[in-house]
UniProtKB/TrEMBL annotation:
<feature type="domain" description="ENPP1-3/EXOG-like endonuclease/phosphodiesterase">
    <location>
        <begin position="59"/>
        <end position="273"/>
    </location>
</feature>
<dbReference type="Pfam" id="PF01223">
    <property type="entry name" value="Endonuclease_NS"/>
</dbReference>
<dbReference type="InterPro" id="IPR020821">
    <property type="entry name" value="ENPP1-3/EXOG-like_nuc-like"/>
</dbReference>
<protein>
    <submittedName>
        <fullName>Endonuclease G</fullName>
    </submittedName>
</protein>
<dbReference type="InterPro" id="IPR001604">
    <property type="entry name" value="Endo_G_ENPP1-like_dom"/>
</dbReference>
<dbReference type="InterPro" id="IPR044929">
    <property type="entry name" value="DNA/RNA_non-sp_Endonuclease_sf"/>
</dbReference>
<dbReference type="InterPro" id="IPR044925">
    <property type="entry name" value="His-Me_finger_sf"/>
</dbReference>
<dbReference type="InterPro" id="IPR040255">
    <property type="entry name" value="Non-specific_endonuclease"/>
</dbReference>
<feature type="domain" description="DNA/RNA non-specific endonuclease/pyrophosphatase/phosphodiesterase">
    <location>
        <begin position="58"/>
        <end position="273"/>
    </location>
</feature>
<keyword id="KW-0540">Nuclease</keyword>
<dbReference type="GO" id="GO:0004519">
    <property type="term" value="F:endonuclease activity"/>
</dbReference>
<keyword id="KW-0378">Hydrolase</keyword>
<keyword id="KW-0255">Endonuclease</keyword>
Length: 298
């Protein structure tokens, strides 16, 4: 069942003091900076707690950068400490608008709701997952869990995709990090296309990407994935007006190619990509054993 809860505006509280994503989380010599949005005019700017212009909405253990036009996040970047994930995730809290930016700059209930006969709605798909942000001390984990429920951290996803193919990838990444007590940095976002289908006035991304960075010895390593919800949307009753990108569903993609598709500069992650020497942009290596064979042993 999809959520149909009304969204209210959160109190400012301690939001201005959140530390957000840490670029040096993996170590001083394995810096993973936030991606740079090449089209700077598309980024939503706001005034932070000190009155300075900023594009980074800082939360507990993660940060979000928003699109001004699309009213969705361009990306969400999270640090995950696999050794500090609680055995049981904190209880889910209600979705909230972030008071640091205008409600009109966030998508509340336009496309989200419960699917009924003859109707179609989307789930609020976390970009940084609750369980990924909910780590650290008891208080830190509770704040990470609560912060993950701010609207800027959500994008519209068909529930079959959100709770199936996409969730499977997310579960695999976190399970491997927890099993070895590893620290990883996870970047996630939609692929915006000017021809994305429009639903109730909101352009719906057909494709989502996820990039994982970790330290192997003294070296920085990274890998990226792209998955499509197009087929799920079609099967469940919403037919997109256009067909999006092709050939990358459920597969690993070179970070250099991802950079071109998203118009994001991933900095050192391009050369850290374990697939950087591949001649193909999309590598047919996405399988249950890929993460273990090509990442943890890399």
């Amino acid at each position: 069942m999809l959520d149909i809860e009304a969204v209210s505006v959160a109190r400012m509280g301690g939001l201005p003091d959140r530390e957000g994503y840490q670029a040096d989380f993996l170590g001083a010599k394995t810096i993973v900076p936030l991606p740079v949005v090449n089209a700077k005019s598309t980024v939503l700017m706001f005034r932070d707690g000190s009155g300075r212009a900023s594009s980074e909405l800082k939360y507990t253990n993660f940060s979000v950068v928003m699109s001004k036009k699309r009213r969705l996040c361009i990306y969400s970047a999270c640090n995950v400490d696999g050794s500090s994930i609680p055995a049981r995730a904190p209880v889910r809290t209600p979705w909230k608008f972030d008071p640091r930016i205008a409600v009109q700059q966030q998508i509340g209930e336009e496309v989200y709701g419960q699917r009924k006969k003859g109707s179609y709605f989307f789930a609020r798909g976390h970009m940084t997952r609750r369980v990924d942000a909910a780590w650290g001390s008891s208080e830190q984990a509770k704040l990470g869990n609560k912060d993950s429920m701010f609207v800027p951290n959500a994008c519209p996803q068909d529930q079959s995709f959100n709770g199936g193919l996409w969730k499977g990838l997310e579960d695999k990444i976190l399970a491997e990090a927890v099993a070895d007590g590893d620290k990883i940095s996870v970047l996630t976002g939609p692929v915006f296309n000017s021809r994305d289908p429009v639903f109730n006035g909101v352009a719906i991304p057909l494709w989502y990407w996820k990039l994982v960075a970790w330290r192997s010895g003294r070296s920085l390593k990274a890998v990226a994935y792209m998955q499509s919800q197009k087929d799920f949307m079609t099967a469940n009753g919403f037919v997109p007006s256009v067909i999006g990108l092709t050939g990358v569903e459920g597969q690993a993609v070179r970070i250099a190619a991802l950079s071109t598709m998203t118009n994001l500069d991933f900095g050192p992650l391009v050369s850290a990509d374990i697939l950087s020497k591949s001649r193909a942009n999309v590598v047919d290596v996405y399988s249950p054993g890929f993460f273990v064979q090509h990442i943890l042993l890399a």
